[in-house]
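quick one, 543 residues, struct below
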Amino acid sequence: MITDFKTIFESRYTWIEGFMRNVRRYGNKPAMFNPENSQFWTYTELNKEVNRLSNALMADGLKKGDVVMLQLPNCPEFAFAYVTAHKTHSICCPVNFRLKPGELAYNIDDSKPMAIIYNAANETDVLEALAMTSHKPKKLIIVGGYTHGESVAYKDYVSHCSDKEPAFTCDYNIYDETTRLYTSGTTGRPKAVPLTSINEVLSAHDVMIHFPMSYKDVTMNTTPWFHRGGLHCAGPGPAFYAGATIIVMGKFDAELTLKYVAKYKISFVIGVPTVLEELADKQERKGYDISTLRGIVTMGSPLERSACIRYQKVLTPNIYNGYGTTETFWNTFLRPFDLPEYAGTAGASCIDDDVRVVKIYDDRRAEPDDLAALDNNEVGEVIISSPAKSPYSYVNNPAETENKYYKGFIYTHDLATWDGHQFITIVGRKDDMIISSGENIYPTEVEAVLNLHPKVKDCIVTSVPDKVRGQIVTAYVVRDDESLTPEELDAFCKESPSIANFKRPRFYRFVAQIPFNATGKKLHVRIKETALEDLKNGLLYRV
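---
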């Protein structure tokens, strides 16, 4: 009896089984709509497009475990390829479409894709990357372009292929790798995260539980699908598993987003905090009917209390905020009933996750039960146990697997405090911590104070070397009012009850924008490099 259950569970509780159930029961229901050309696909039609691509790739020799790499913006072909990997026992490997050729070449040699499906706008970079690689994919498929040279246009590639179910040569298994994502690589080389079918099923369940989301919903993710939040937070992963409808947004535009919400009756929008800021600005001026929204979900960084209250008033009372990693999806979550009271925190553990803050030692990592005090004061390292959503390994990287995973937890290197209810507040990263005159300073706590100034739109804090202090706090500020001066900010920090005087910035520079990665996280590593150059060139203003 137990053996029968194990066999059936491991072969049938897969993501593709869930998708095919929806093809059978919601066949005539819209699965995806592309506003750029007003084209939509029912679940039956979506499945036929998946079958065409599946049959084309299998005719070219695609087999179980082969990698199909995507360098695409959010587009229908991305969705077709994602489902195709599940159906053909292969691995969908989406990568950042903003990568430089050298970075892309690293990913190609690391994952050795059988095929690359890429956007015509990226062709020069793709071909340059391939000139640098030792691995050469069997097939190059171009979206939005024409067949030429070694590349075949996507439309030509699938046009003569059958839309019938492909023939299979092996059984499904929940432990098969179906998707491979690369970490954003803000420190060192990106790592390949292998997600199994059961990881994808349970990631979908997590979304369906926490929103909640069902087949009645219409979703739009304004962030790129090539990262975990884009793919699994109301992106193709959970939406197609739940039987929901996806509205495709290739590139974020605040006004278009609001128009689409009104026109297509979107119930969930996903975006990083900067997206919410732009949406609120536009909605205040235009006043679109966005009453169908049941929630706006943001990841990447915490929401400040004042911003949260504004979004709840202008956009929807139902604001959600999640925190997590590429390896583990989201793992703490703030739901509408947590806000605005807990705004600024990362929330508390998701239902199936165990997120802790452990002590920090100079010579070793803490054991998982060596906890920091639940006093919202002692700073420790965030560790995450997410058995449902994490593969607990990296591809081709046993050393980093050993380094990051320990006793069922991933050690994130994020620094945080937590309180008696286990709500976690991120204060920075181990790599970003500033040590000035022997005192530890966390960039996020300084950023939070600067962002309270009414003339500040956003900021990022780092440090530059100093012979006396060791490091000097340095702030890059995007002004909301051009009259703002460094002296005004310095006085504001001196008067603030939220940070000690030694933590205030001594160097300032005003900039048009600050660097973010694709998941909406501030790139402190990059701004630190910028600050060193600016210091050498005399571009930092001393107060």
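Residues 18 and 420 are 39 Å apart (CA to CA).
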